[in-house]
Amino acid sequence: MAEANQSGQLGQGGERRNLRPNVRSVVLLSGGMDSCVCAAIAVAEARDSGTEVAALHISYGQRTEARERQAFLAICDHLEIRQRLIVRNEALRAIGGSALTDVNIAVPEITGESAHIGQTVPVTYVPFRNAHFLAVAVSWAEVLEASQIYIGAVEQDSSGYPDCRPAYYEAYNQVIRLGTKEGNISIVTPLIALRKSQIVSHGLELGAPLDLTWSCYSHGDGAGDAACGVCDSCVLRLRAFQDAGAADAIPYTVRAVSAD
Ligand SMILES: [Zn+2]
C-alpha cells in the first residue's frame, strides 16, 4: 500500500502553485508521543527557514497499526503537514520475533515498580526495525531532495532498544553519506538525550497535539479503544506525564501509574 501526496499543487496562499514544494526535512511519524513532538520540532524549524516538512508513516503488521495510522493522519492535519507518505513493510511481520508483530508472543504487562524497564532488550523489540524505517526515509529524502531526516528516538527512559543509541545514528549517517547520490542527508535526533517527562513538557510548549497520539502496544484495534495502561509504552508514557505534572488526555483501561 502506498499513499502519497507529493504533487505540490497547493502552495500556501497560492504563491507556490505548480512549483515543487520546498521540502528540507522528512520526519518519521509513527503516531506516538515521541514522534509527534519530534514532528512538531521539525515543523517549527522548517517554519523558521521557510521550508516544509514531509511526514513518513510505516505500517509493519504491528498489533495497533490501524490506530497508529489514524494518529499519524490526525497529527499531520494538526501540524499542517501536507506532504505525506504511508507505506507498508511486509518483511518485519513475516519475520516476526517480536510481541508487536507475532500474536503468539504476549505483550508484557508491567506491574509494581516496573524498575526493570530499559535494563534488558524486551520482547517488544522489533528486530532492526529502525534500520528499515530509516532506509525508506533516506530513499524518499533523496527523491524530495531533502537533507534531514528527523526521528524521535529516545535513549533515556526508553524501553532499552539498541536502535535508539546515539552511536547507531552516527553509524547510519555514515551509511547514508556513502550510499546516496549526493551524500548530503543526515539524521536528526532532537529527543535522544531527553527524559520522557522533558519530551512531554517540550511538546506542550510547542503545542504538539499529544492528545492525538497513540503509544499503546496492545490495545487500539478499533477506533475509540482505550490504551491498556500496563504495557511498557503506556507505563513509560503515564510516568512521563506524571513527572511533567501534566494530564494525559487519552483514555486508559487501567492506569498502572497513578495520575496526580
Ligand atoms: Zn498499552
Domains, number: 1
Distance between the termini: 42 Å
Helical content class: 25-40%
Beta strands, count = 6
- CATH hierarchy, class: Alpha Beta
Overall structural class, as computed from helix and strand content, comes to alpha/beta
Ligands, deduplicated: zinc ion
Uncertain parts: 1-18
CATH architecture call: 3-Layer(aba) Sandwich
Mean pLDDT: 88
Q: What portion of the residues fall into strands of 2 or more residues?
A: 5-15%
Shape call:
globular
Q: Over the alpha carbons, how many angstroms does the gyration radius reach?
A: 18 Å
Q: Biggest sheet, in brief? A: 6 strands, mixed
Provide an overview of this structure.
This protein is of the alpha/beta class and 260 residues long. The chain has a single domain, classed as Rossmann fold, CATH 3.40.50. Helices cover 35% and strands 11% of the residues. It has helices spanning 33-49, 65-79, 91-95, 129-144, 166-179, 196-206, 232-244, and strands spanning 2-4, 23-28, 52-59, 83-88, 148-150, 186-188. The protein has a 6-stranded mixed beta sheet, sandwiched between helices. Helix 6 crosses helix 7 (232-244). The structure holds zinc ion. The site of zinc ion has 9 residues, from helix 7.
